[in-house]
Design brief:
Layout (H helix, E strand, L loop, with lengths): L1 E7 L2 E6 L10 E9 L2 H9 L10 E2 L3 E9 L11 E4 L32 E4 L1 H7 E3 L6 H4 L2 H14 L6 E5 L3 H12 L3 E6 L2 H9 L5 E4 L7 H7 L6 E6 L4 H10 E9 L13 H6 L3 E3 L6 H12 L9 E5 L4 H10 L4 E4 L2
Parallel strand pairs: 9-10, 9-12, 10-11, 12-13, 13-14, 15-16
Antiparallel strand pairs: 1-2, 1-4, 3-5, 3-7, 3-16, 5-6, 6-8
Helix pairs in contact: 4-5, 4-10
């Protein structure tokens, strides 16, 4: 098959490679749609200690397709089924799984290799995190299940409620989806970002109530507070950038008794500073949510198939498989949201 393989930072190659023989419980999926992701861009630029364990490695993890082959022991899908598979599945047996904290599973192997004509889905993901698509759901929409599942998980754990004022700082695909989910929960949503295309999508896709251009207003704390009830500060602030200085900015915008959700992961070793008086006497809840679970993967598919979240609006352009490196460069330039890769 043709595939894009990862050899090292800024070193990916479109080439012919062998399809891995199926082990018991695995399936082979013909990839019909794959999506670029911010994590892939970070991996392309500097590697990834969890996603890339050896080189060359498969690359890409958001996809949907058609089951081309099944091995012994597979009972929940068959050849010809239209499916979407997550990039992980919990073991169900470790310390964290026994406490139903499935996203923290100690045996959470992450699946890579979506930028290819075919991908082998491991047994555990086949059993726990592979879903059959509704007949009328296009592959390109279904491929959004994995990133949206992260957002649905994060929004549920944040306990966003109707009538709250919610601020989203950073409006890449994840931030935009957070804003949309918050609106669906009945919140009043204010978002902040710098990119003109993303600011436009904050209105047209997320339907945010207020959009702040950080190029014009680099210190948006006053705008956030003015947007909130009685100017007290936001009920919920969600950081979707992953920079220490933006974590600190997010903390400065929340009201006493509110919640700050640091969803954007900072570079390993980063540190931040918060005023302890405000944190303690302000009774502020600080949290962070990582990854998704089978429950939220299913909920993401339901939201997409119902049409409540028009994920297709986040697709910048459709590209062939051999253009993945071009897509990575476009992301680095800041001129893209997500590319649809069609092998």
């Amino acid at each position: 098959m043709k595939a894009v393989l990862y050899y090292g930072p800024e070193n990916i190659k479109y080439e012919e490679t062998q399809i891995k023989p199926l082990a018991k419980g695995e399936i082979l999926v013909r990839v019909e749609a794959a999506l670029t992701c911010g994590t892939d861009v970070k991996t392309y630029r500097r590697g990834h200690p969890v996603l890339i364990k050896q080189v060359p490695s498969g690359f890409g993890h958001e996809f949907s397709g058609v089951v081309a082959k099944v091995s012994e022991g597979v009972t929940n899908v068959k050849v010809g089924d239209r499916v979407v598979a997550a990039n992980s599945a919990p073991c169900g047996e470790c310390f964290y799984c026994k406490r139903e904290q499935y996203n923290l599973c100690e045996n959470l192997d992450l699946l890579n290799g979506a930028y290819a004509e075919y991908i082998v889905v491991p047994e555990r993901i086949v059993k726990k995190n592979t879903l059959i698509l509704p007949d009328n759901l296009p592959f390109e929409k279904a491929a959004f299940c994995e990133p949206l599942a992260n957002v649905v998980h994060g929004a549920a754990r944040t306990e966003i409620k109707e009538g709250q004022t919610v601020g989203i700082i950073g409006i890449g695909p994840i931030g935009l989806m957070f804003a949309r989910v918050a609106k669906l929960k009945g919140a009043r949503v204010i978002v902040a970002g710098r990119n003109a295309t993303k600011l436009k999508l904050a209105e047209e896709f997320a339907h945010a109530d207020e959009v702040v251009d950080l190029k014009k207003y680099p210190n948006p704390q006053k705008i956030f507070k003015d947007f909130s009830d009685e100017g007290k500060g936001l009920d919920v602030v969600i950081e979707c950038v992953g920079l220490p200085e933006i974590w600190e900015l997010a903390f400065s915008c929340v009201r006493p008794g509110g919640t700050v959700h640091f969803f954007g992961g900072c570079k390993s070793g980063s540190t931040v500073s918060f005023e302890t008086t405000k944190m303690h006497y302000g009774d502020i809840k600080i949290m962070s949510v990582f990854h998704h679970t089978p429950k939220y993967f299913r909920e993401a598919l339901d939201l997409i198939s119902s049409g409540k979240i028009e994920v297709e609006k986040l697709i910048t352009e459709t590209l062939p498989l051999e253009k993945v490196e071009y897509a990575m460069q476009r992301h680095i330039e800041g001129t893209a949201i997500k590319f649809l890769i069609k092998p």
